[in-house]
Hints:
The protein is α/β, with parallel strands linked by helices. It has two domains: 325 residues, Alkaline Phosphatase, subunit A (3-Layer(aba) Sandwich); 107 residues, Arylsulfatase, C-terminal domain (2-Layer Sandwich), CATH 3.30.1120. The chain contains 14 helices and 16 strands. The chain is globular and about 60 Å long. The chain starts with 7 loop residues before the first helix and ends with a helix.
Amino acid sequence: MNVIFKTKRNQISFLSMLIFTLFLATSCKNTAEEKPSNTSKQPNVIVILIDDAGYADFGFMGCKDLETPNIDKLAQSGVVLTDAHVSATVCAPSRAGLITGKYQQRFGFEANGTGYGNSGDIGLSDDVVTMADVFKANGYKTMALGKWHLGADKTDHPNQRGFDEFYGFETGSRSYFSLKNPSKYTMLQHNGERVKFTGYMTDVLGDQSVKYIEENKDQPFFMYLAYNAVHTPMHAKKEHLEKYKNHPRQKLAAMTWSLDENVGKLQQKLKDLGLAENTLIYFLSDNGGAANNSSSGGPLKGWKGNKFEGGHRVPFVVSWPKAIKGGQTFEGLSSSLDIFTTSLAAANITKADDLVLDGANLLPYLKGEKTGNPHNKLFWRKLEEAGARIGNYKMVRLQDYGATLYNLKEDLGETTNLETTHSKEFQQLQGELRNWESQMMDPLWVEERSWMDVTHHIHKRLMQNKEVLYSDPGKMKEVLSNKK
C-alpha cells in the first residue's frame, strides 16, 4: 500500500473551497432562506455516540451485570438493530465516517488519530460535507458536545464544520475530572473558550445537553452528543464506586451507571417539553469494546482495533416514537453510515446530487415498509488489516499473512475458516474488496509502528484461533524480550 502524506494547505485549492461554499448554499431543498418555522413538523435529531462500549454491555443486549435502565427504556421506545456496524474499529475514523455518511477512506481518513509523523495534523478534508453542514443550511440549530477527535487544525474545529455550538474537547481521551493546566486540545471548551468545571465529565456533558434542549425547544435541532464514556482512563465517581464495590467490573459498572443516568436526564427533558415523540434518537458505540476497559463483546470474536465482529459490530438503537413503532428488533445488515441518509429522509431534506453518501435510508425497514437488508455489502480497512461482508459471509484479510472466511449465520464467533471449502465465496469477497479499494484514497497518514505491529499480532493470532499474547506496545516489548 502506497501511503501519501499531505499537508492541510495542499489538500485543496482556492477554487475547490469556492466550489464547496457554493455547494453548501445550494445543496439541499430547504435553503437558509426557507428556514422552517418554530411550528415545523421536522423532527429533532440526536446522535448519542458513546466510546469503546462492548456489544453485550447493556440490558437491552442481554447484559445481566451492568445496570442500564434508562438506556434500556430508550431501546424499548424504538428499534434495536442487532447486525449494525460502524465504518472503522477505532475512534477517529469511525467518527469521520458517521459525521460524513461516507466511507472515511474516500477522503484519506483511515488511520486513528488525525495525522502522524511528517504528515502534520490533517483531520477532516476541508471540502468534505458533514451532517451539521447540511442541517444548519436547512434551518436546524446544530450543536456538538463531548469528544471531537476529528482534527486539531483551525479548519477542523466543530464551529467550522457546521456546528453552531461546541461544548466539549478536541482530543481523543482525557481525564473525567478537571485538569489544572489543560492544553488547547484537552481542555473543556465552549466555542473555543475554556470552560472551568467541577464534578464529573459525564455529568457535565449530560447537564449541558439538557440545557441546549431547553434553549432550543422552539426550533428543530441536530445534536451530536459524543460521550467519552466508557473510554479509558477508568475514572468514576466515588459514590458509584462504592455502589459497585463488590462488582467484578467495578469501574466499568460505575462509569456505565453514570452514563445511563445522563441519558435518562436527556429523555426526561424531552418528555417534559413535549418533544419526545418527534425526536429521532440514535444510540451507538463508536467501535467495539476495548481490551483495557473490562468491556464484553458477548458471543463476538475480537475487540476494538481489529476486523473481527467484536471490533465493529455495535449496540445500535433507533428511536422516533412519532414514526417508528417501539419494542422492535431488526436483524438486517446496517451501518453507522446510514445515520446521515436516514436523518435527511426523516427531516424531508433532499440530498444534493453531487453529495456522495454510502449509507442507506433505514426508515422503510424500521417502519415495516421494506424487508431484508439495507446493505448487501460492507467493507472495513485500516492500513494493514481489512474486512469485507457480503450477505452472511465475512472475510478478514491481513497484509503479509493471508485471509480467512466465515459464515456468520452459522458461526458468529468466527472460529471456522471456510477459505478452502468455500472457494467461490472467498474469491467473490476478495474481488469485491479489491473493487471497493479501487474507489478509495490511500491513507493520508499512518500510525506508530509499534501499534501497527501489535495490531498485526492480534489479527494473526485471532485468525489462527490462538490466544493473543499482547495488546499494547509495552506488553509486546515484554513478551518479545522474554522470548530471546
